[in-house]
Amino acid sequence: MNQRELHHGHDEAASAGAVVSGTTIRLTTAQALVRYLAAQRVATEDGLGTEPLFGGVFAIFGHGNVAGMGEALYQHRDELPTLRAHNEQAMAHSAIAYAKAHFRRRMMAVTTSIGPGATNLLTAAALAHVNRLPVLLLPGDIFVSRAPDPVLQQVEDSHDGGVSANDAFKPVSRYFDRIMHPAQLLSALPRALRVLTDAASCGPVTLALPQDVQAQAWDFPADFFAPRIVTFYAPAPRVDEIDAAVARLQRAKRPLIVAGGGVLYGRATDALQRFAAAHGIPVAETQAGKSSLAWDDPLNAGSLGVTGSPAANALARDADCVLALGTRLQDFTTGSNTLFTQADVIGINANAFDALKHRAQVVEADARLALDALAERLQDWQADRAWTSRAHELAASWRDAVHTLTHAPQRESVLPYEGDVIGAVQRSSTDSPANDIVVCAAGTLPGELHKLWRAGTPGAYHVEYGYSCMGYEIAGGLGVKLARPEREVIVMVGDGSYLMMNSEIATSVMLGAKLIVVVLDNRGYGCINRLQQACGGAPFNNLLEDSMQGPLGAPQIDFAAHARALGARAEHVANVAELEAALQRARSADRTYVISIDTDPARTTSDGGWWWEVAVPEVSPRASVREARANYDAQISARGKPPASAENSGDGSNSNDQAND
């Protein structure tokens, strides 16, 4: 830090109420933390300038953070905006979605009080951990001094006096620390920042903040708060691992690329398109990886796995080599490890733990750097021409099928299903549909969107499915809109998820972050109702009509009226034609607009799909359960055996399309 910068820093510190002495600044722990976050910068997407790494801090204040963190955030509210929310879990979802929409290049922090305010963050922390997404969690904690012991909302442990409720964050954080003295920030904050910006270790960071330590002052080095341009860390491939991958690919005649979220986060979409086209390799997309390749690219075979297209699943079933690019190969992608058991797998991932799945040959590397290294070595190598030709035909056939499915004629006597609604949403775009970003998370919709949504640009598909967290949808949509205010953000949500978490509709109105929310009302948990019956169970406790009821019966819920009560514009529509008209009104509205429509809880897209392992009871008095168990046992016995031809078995005939949750 030069003298001019130091002098400027002194002026800033003085204006913020800090005490400056020589080359130190006397700040509270909370003030130092906030000041450090505000100083972090990141290069803009065009590379021509910089912008804050942290887009802001979501805060719900309580006795554990209002005095310390609240005062610090107030002092720095111009350079680090504070956003008020209505639910702690929801605001963390918004922060996570913000980071995902920025492909992990920008992020947000979240602060809560102790007790329920803190533990409400746990579900969101697990979601960020599973999805490898950065978020900085700053829950208040109990007094280090133990003077007011036990403090309000303190969870006591009779065996360990040092435990607080925040210890529950340890298994769902990529880095955890409890700040017991202000000086700890000098090591804790750089460590936290490294985790948040490291492709291999990226995920939630929790810094628990005891409320007395938040208010404690210390003389911090002034240069600790100098503005810094953050570097993002991603490993380059090792030569020996690239050699091994090249050898495997050169033996392959029928390769398939599985594109995961790492393609988007590594900004490898252009490299993927070039690599696939140069070598004639078809691409299938995971939930996190969808939009890695434009929907109409001739080598995009569509979604893979349990919610996969018939094209992608047929190719996966016959592939002799699978290049798993930036994916952790969870069970929906692999059909519970039944879909490409015959293939050699090359796992390319910044995190070796994720790359090791499915007995893969590991290339521990950033997706773009690995693709560039492979391309340099494989310049003259091509997949078998018949294989590439087949991939083109299957992909084209599936694109035609998607158009048919989303443009099906509507009958007045039949309720629409998710595919009909998806088609209406995409047809409603007055601009290029590629400008829309769809947001979703759980239930039937992710399976239908994975198959049917046409994502034309990277990030146009934002579905949280690693944790399949009901309630993420509206809060996530808010985070996406804050990250991409120039884009139309379409939240598609079932009635079950809407009822679980909808309060951030009010936040979106307050912040002027307009969303279009389409509520598909199938009167219950339709997805799990179908799965329950697919496993031989009777319809029970999922749809409202099959649940225990009092004398008044199941409620008739007016979602439009509820959304209006939260400050949004809203209406209920009777059919798909009315939905398309309402969507035009929503697109021109000045605030969040909610549209509800009744849908069929039983219908799904029958094309595609694959088996998903859900354990069925081994004994039951019910014949339907015993039959489902026999089918389950047959699938388990077939696992690992040589596959039949994909032309016969890869068309979804053995799929369980009820298993879309």
UniProtKB/TrEMBL annotation:
The protein's enzyme class: hydrolase
Entry keywords, A to Z: Hydrolase, Thiamine pyrophosphate
InterPro entries: DHS-like_NAD/FAD-binding_dom, Myo_inos_IolD, THDP-binding, Thiamin_PyroP_enz_cen_dom, Thiamin_PyroP_enz_TPP-bd_dom, TPP-bd_CS, TPP_enz, TPP_enzyme_TPP-bd
EC number: 3.7.1.22
Domain Thiamine pyrophosphate enzyme N-terminal TPP-binding stretches: 57-153
Domain Thiamine pyrophosphate enzyme central as annotated: residue spans: 242-374
Organism encoding this protein: Paraburkholderia strydomiana
NCBIfam families cross-referenced by the UniProt entry: myo_inos_iolD
Family assignment from sequence similarity: Belongs to the TPP enzyme family.
Superkingdom: Bacteria
UniProt-recorded name of the protein: 3D-(3,5/4)-trihydroxycyclohexane-1,2-dione acylhydrolase (Decyclizing)
